[in-house]
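Please predict the structure of the following assembly.
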Amino acid sequence: MRGKADSDLVRRQNRHIVLEALRLHGPMPRVELGRITGLSPASITTIANQLIDDKAMRELNEAPDRSDPNRRGRPTVRVELNPDAALAIATKISIDGVDLALVNFAGKIIARKNTLIATYEVQPDAFGKALANIMRDFFDENSLKSGDVAHIGIAAQGVTHSQKGTIAWSPAFRATNIPVVEPVERETGVTCSIANDANMIAEGVMSADRYSYTGTAAVVFMGYGVGMGLVIDGKVYHGATGAAAEFGHMNHIPEGALCRCGRLGCLEAYASDYGILRFAKNLAEQTPPPSHAVPRHIMVDLENAARQGQANAVAAYQNAGRAIGFGLARMIALLNPDRIVLAGPGTRALDLIEPALRAAIDEGVVEELRRQVKIETVPIDTDMIIKGTIDATLRYLDLNIFASGPMRNLAEQKEPQQ
Amino acid sequence: MRGKADSDLVRRQNRHIVLEALRLHGPMPRVELGRITGLSPASITTIANQLIDDKAMRELNEAPDRSDPNRRGRPTVRVELNPDAALAIATKISIDGVDLALVNFAGKIIARKNTLIATYEVQPDAFGKALANIMRDFFDENSLKSGDVAHIGIAAQGVTHSQKGTIAWSPAFRATNIPVVEPVERETGVTCSIANDANMIAEGVMSADRYSYTGTAAVVFMGYGVGMGLVIDGKVYHGATGAAAEFGHMNHIPEGALCRCGRLGCLEAYASDYGILRFAKNLAEQTPPPSHAVPRHIMVDLENAARQGQANAVAAYQNAGRAIGFGLARMIALLNPDRIVLAGPGTRALDLIEPALRAAIDEGVVEELRRQVKIETVPIDTDMIIKGTIDATLRYLDLNIFASGPMRNLAEQKEPQQ
DNA sequence: TAATTTAATTTGGCGTCCAAAATAATGTTG
DNA sequence: CAACATTATTTTGGACGCCAAATTAAATTA
């Protein structure tokens, strides 16, 4: 049951949709903010001026637009998100290391830092310490103090536990239950949150094209692993512990191929880089996966071999397509989504994968359910995870800081102990 | 993006939570309504008196409670939902026929009617006509006129299309895309909606114990078929077309056993009554399922045989448990739910099914994901579908009629054409 | 009967929204 | 160039919903 409503809720909600409109559509005049949000001009005036007072927005100082010769009347004054309203840090933890991006409130990346860490053998506490050091260096390099950064968002490969702030299990680590949020918060004094990387890809894909993500959508990541981000009713779905949509470790065939997670028959064991490679090399299904990512050039070579008709390679991609297709068929039966988006480096080989994928969906689910699902592909972009993390973190600031009122509310944020 | 907020939203929301509190906890004094909803006594006075004006609520006329001898002060006056506020009809369409229940606003069943129809061979339009006739008879038998009934809710087995108001596909019909809502609305003049029967079971289970359904839960129905109702973020999830959670037709084994839906390897082909029976009889996996439900006594006999150690029967239930377990493991990987509830007549045999079911979950999903899932069983109750449909329909009335304000708003309900 | 206790209502004020009127800043026209 | 037209934004005044505090109501206790 949703809670009670009062004028506080109204103010938060309406300020939030104003900020959201600006984030989605960029600078625009107040009239248009009114059109988009459905708020009256009078309310827009009030809200805009408050947000400007709070430094969340600002007026653009530009010459009137003369491009339309038929334009009459008082010229519009466009407003935009104030880039200097706040800073945030987006973080990606993967098998390759730690990737950091410092962004301003308008979403512009101000600084980046990429640190290689041999994550696989590291001890849980040592990793927290290493991450804290990286973060501190990043603060120092950019002359940041604790109060300068409003939030730190972290995306990690594997099963993340958002409440506990840990990585419960990840292919990048041999260890489990690695504390992440706590060491970062202690070192920096900045609030921090962690989420699954595939969910962050979904955030990014959704932010880029939000108007069309009103219902349910699944964003599939194909590459060194297989992941999924679920958008349910227009919001990224995180599940009970923040570990939803572990599509790659959804079982495909009971007692099937050995997965990096140690279990048998996971989808990833058939459709990830190493799964495809293992099949193409004619290795037994039980052959242990490598502990490191398969180098890109090896996969590219394999794709080319398949395109030239090398039988094992062709079969490997068909096998992968079939696995993903059945996984999607199962997902469709459960969730009846509006659309499916395929993303990640694995989509390079989509021509090799797609026929088997579509055949498997047809085979695996009632026609009535799959008929209306749109399947799309998103351009390959290795930075999708960091972009999505930025989007999610900024949305967090919009809602939790700026929509609530002036900055002073930050102190009152905590639950009153009643 | 959620829309703007205004005082209208506040009023609707708060009236709704007041009605919801009464529906969940029964009659209570105003003070307690305030405690439960978080609204101030002043606001409760206002809202309660308006709802009483609108005939949605009424004061109980009872002698003061003397049970607590230490009780001081002005005695409480309890308020309750007004049973006469509205009437609604809940409808169940299944392979057995059509089941109707007339309920008052307080949820009491006033009349029932059960009509057998040989659904399987019927033509789509003929079914609509037959249903309309049944409905008209029900109106006549209870001296109801069009305006007397506020809404008709329908639950049907199979894939329902809530927007179109049709049954897209159902094991109860050979035909597909059967119009249901339109013929009923035309005959009765009452608004009508349709949903999947498993979703209605979830509504019922949730209503009975709502405080504990805050996150994500899956209610599995086992019996003549296998179904699932998903509760996501405290609300029953319906998917893009109203056909979500077709758990029974989620693929279990590619190219596996023949399902009633004509596809191979659906979970239902292993775990429904007929699937279990087919396995126990040692019939080939491709043996066509019967077009009618398996009589109860046959299943009971089979359970007893298994309990006495008859090998085929034991194996059949293990096989079913394994299928459901893997299906749940896949669902857990995708949705990371808080709880799973097993329901339906199939739970009679839970002792036979559960070990294999739990083993399959353990085998099929990472420990980090399944650790916190609670698995529960709900008492067998053949009327769960109709009960859930009643709950869902009354909740619809709460939100769409009584929370919005006085009845006159019913006329203004339609979208203004802007 | 007066004091105490608890429930419910009334009063007065606050915050947000909106419609309508007013103001601002430009282009058009005679 | 002055008056008019047009479009954007702000101001004004009123409505509605919430709440805290004061008040009233209806019992029990002393």
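Chain A has three domains: 7-64+75-81, 85-190+384-410, 209-377. Chain A touches chain B through 69 residues (CB under 8 Å).
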